[in-house]
Amino acid sequence: MRDLWRSVEKGEWENCTLPKEFLLLGMGNVVSSLQAPLFLLSLIIYSGTMVANILIVVLVVADRHLHTPMYFFLGNLSSLETCYSSTILPRLLASFLTGDSTISAHGCMTQFYFFVALAVSECYLLAMMSYDRYLAICQPLLYASLMTWKVSLQLAAASWLVGLLISTVVTSFLSHLRFCGPNVIDHFFCDFTPLLELACSDTRLVTLLVSIIAVLDTVFPFLFTLASYMCIIAAILRIPSSVGRQKAFSTCSSHLIVVSVFYGTLIIVYLMPRTLQLRQLNKVFSFFYTVLTPLVNPLIYSLRNREVRAALRKGLRRALANSKSSEYCCARVVKPPRVHT
Hints:
Blueprint: H1 2-9, E1 21-24, H2 35-62, H3 69-98, E2 102-104, H4 105-138, H5 143-146, H6 149-175, E3 184-185, H7 192-196, H8 204-237, H9 242-250, H10 253-271, H11 279-304, H12 306-333
Parallel strand pairs: 1-3
Antiparallel strand pairs: 1-2
Helix pairs in contact: 2-3, 2-11, 3-4, 3-11, 4-6, 4-8, 6-8, 10-11, 11-12
């Protein structure tokens, strides 16, 4: 460890420069003939993700019945998913459309910065949401006094700020590495491990730093979420009536599904060995948690949550009523001209 810090102090990284650009291999040569269908599929996924998540945010802001800490966190999650998709999919769409898979070095580091920031923020935000459900089910009498609007705002802001801070540190260290060879990234976006494989300088310090950060910012929120749900399930099982158990479980089932999907794919991607045979499978799971999960999350919350469905129906009825009233007003204003005989 001392040798690593000595190399930094001696200025070993001072003359390190990034290459001008990287080449993203994407999903591999097997799908090179499917550029148009993949572009269409990615465009549909991106459009659906943006519409669904923005709709959730609008519903949470517009409907006063959703002005609770639970839906405040849900609005934050949907905002985060919107940014998350916009970090990866627009670049992927451009490469499918033009066939140009190169990305500038600064563009690559910018993509990596926002990807890490949003991924870490999501880990903490999901943990805050599980804490909110824990208080609501296990401490119902104290919930209103413990989970105030001020506390909700502080927890959400802390989730975003921790993500940005951690990403700044990791990206700063990564960008000071020397990169050698053809600068070909065997992935469809700039992720940590594929970038580290291209580095020809000493990567032990960066690897150690990221390992420590991964424990603090991924494993800790995961264990916190797991512990919260163990307490929640234990509390639900103690409810005597089956109707009460079902009602209590319905308030947190959507979040439990989202947490399981997110952490399940995350663990598979980063614990799966990057052997030549498993790299394509690794990309498939990466595609799932970076591209499909932001689309699936709002669908899970809207389909399984009664209050969100009610707010959506009310919003649609209001929009239809407004459109009909505006048509009626226009019909009264625009009168047909008189015919003089």
